Each structure stands twice: as C-alpha cells, then as structure tokens.
C-alpha cells in the first residue's frame, strides 16, 4: 500500500511526498497548474516558452552553472508543458536534496527572461514549430484538437504559432510568469530516500515567495465540443487521419470504463483495430486509439496513417467497430484482457 503525505502551507503551496528508504536517489517534481489552455489567443505558446527558459538562467546562475550543478550531484532534469499544466523535475542522489531544493526555488523565484537566452530560445521554439508542422502525425493531431474544440484554449497548439511566438517579448513572459507561477497554483511532489522533517524544513526555507500576486488568475472556461471535419492537402506518401468523440473528464467516476474501451478499441496490440486493420488486412503500419482527459472534458480518438487508396476501407472498418460495440457490446474475454492490462500498467 502506497503511503504518502499531503501538506498545504499557508501561502497555498501543496506538497505530496513519499519516503522510499531502499533507494539512493530522490526525485522532485514541481507542477504548475498552468498550460496552453489558460493562455489568451494572442500569447498562445507563452507557457511553453517560459518552460524553455526555466533552466536558462537566474539572477545568480547562468545556464552553464545550472547544468554543472545538476551534473555534480548525479542529477537529471527536464521540463514539459501540457494543455493544463507545466512541470519541471530533478532526480539526484538523495544526500543532495538540499541543493536540489535550493536550485529549483532559485529557478522558480529568480528566473531571468531577458537578453541573449530569450532571443536564442525564441529561435529554438520557432524551429520546434517548423519541425512539428513537418511531422504529419503531429500536424493532424493539432488539426484534430482545433476542429474538436474550436477557438477554446484546448484547441490551440501547445507550442503556439509562428505569429504568436514572434510577437512575444520578455515583458509579456515576465508578467505572465508573475501571475501564473504562484504558490497556490503549485504542487511539489517528492519521492525517494529522505527524512520527512528535513524535506518540510527545506521547503519552508527555500519557497518563501516574498512577492505574492493576488489570486486573480481567470477561471478556466469550460470547452464545448464542436462536430465537423478539417482537411489539409500536402504532398505526402500517406494520408494521416484522426477521428474522435467526446470523452470523460479526469475525475469522472466512469473514467476506468473509458480506459478499458480505449484498450479494446485500439490501445493495445490485441485491440480490435490493430488486429483487423493491420494484422488481418495489412492496410496500415500504425493505427491506435487514444483517450485524452482534462479537468473538465475529454476525447476518445483514433489515429492512423495509410496510403491514400486504403483510407476508404480503413474508415469503413473503424465505423463498423463502432457499430459492433454499440449493438453487440464487448466480450468477457476482451474485458478480462483490458482489466489485466490496466492493472499491470496503471
């Protein structure tokens, strides 16, 4: 049984921790409840831009110093942005937890968004956008979300667009960082070999947040599903497609039903779509279903890529499977397989 502790400080900062005494490392992750859906359209991509700059320098450390500090404690670090949150994390030898906490607090409280690193990362992100646009599977998923959610924040790409990234300035990033990177919007998770009282002492010491902003971050607008289709013509060898329908939010009591349905439909190598479209008919190299859930909405979708001449038959198989599940249901064998898969991988 997992035994973890939850703590909330007076400034709103939440801490979740679990002591694992038989390891020699500690992992610290900081989740900020801010993602691409929370951005205004004109600054789309600002959350991801901030994430890029978090390890690029503070008022007392440059990027090189941060990198050498992490390497010197046997550490690994990374960060990522999603539609609903941003995360940065460090894994290091457990005896260096104090250094990890001091470094992460310096990054969160004293990041520097000015100068050469800002301009350099702007170019890097624009190259990242170009790369994503050159990858048809990435491109079709962005189109799918845009069609599904329209102008809502969930429908916009996490990276932003070339136009919005070009328009971003250090001042915009600083202002957005100030209102979104506040303790009441953060969760610190710590797992590994550490003493609980030492952890809480380090958090109180380092995460002081002397200049607290008012808790006036706008509430999230609930997305509204839009039916429709989108088509983009490009000179490629294959046609890439997504089909989807409304799913369930993350906290829905029925979410495990959707997890099982996803596995049965196309989420595993024994799934209906993988077996029928790839193994039996040989029409694709890749086809799968996916379940994307958010705090207030969700999507159950299917992705595939195939030669243009195969698309019509593939879509017929997909629609037939929808009809089969609706009209005939799911076998007990399929359900048992899905349950075991979920137990082993959840």
Question: In summary, what is this structure?
Answer:
This is Zinc protease. By secondary structure, the chain is α+β, with helices and mostly antiparallel strands. It contains 12 helices and 9 strands.
Keyphrases for this structure?
18% strand, Cytochrome Bc1 Complex, Chain A, domain 1, 9 strands, Pept_M16_Zn_BS, 3-stranded antiparallel sheet, 6-stranded mixed sheet, Peptidase_M16_C, 12 helices, 346 residues, metal ion binding
Describe the model:
The protein has about 350 residues and is of the alpha+beta class. The chain folds into 2 domains: about 200 residues, Cytochrome Bc1 Complex, Chain A, domain 1, CATH 3.30.830; about 110 residues, Metalloenzyme, LuxS/M16 peptidase-like (Cytochrome Bc1 Complex, Chain A, domain 1), CATH 3.30.830.10. Helices cover about 40% and strands about 20% of the residues. It contains 12 helices and 9 strands. Pfam families: Peptidase_M16, Peptidase_M16_C.
